[in-house]
Amino acid sequence: AAYFILKDKTAYKELGAEYLESRKKDRQIQHYLDKLRELGVELNKEKVA
Fold it and tell me: Within 10 A of 16 (CB to CB), how many other CB atoms are there?
């Protein structure tokens, strides 16, 4: 992150907990989809409300 702040001459912006939680959730979803594919199950990743 520091490289891009210096390179682009922009201010540091804290992304916050919500950003980190959403990334964690997306990684978990992808992990389990990959595991299911290994078992021969094909699914489409589609968000539901």
Answer: 8
pTM for the model stands at 0.55
For the chain (49 residues), the mean pLDDT of every run of 10, in chain order, is 91 88 90 94 76
DSSP 5-49: HHHHT------HHHHHHHHHHHHHHHHHHHHHHHTT---------
Distance CA 7, CA 20 (A): 24
CA-nearest of 1, 25, 22 to 13 is 1
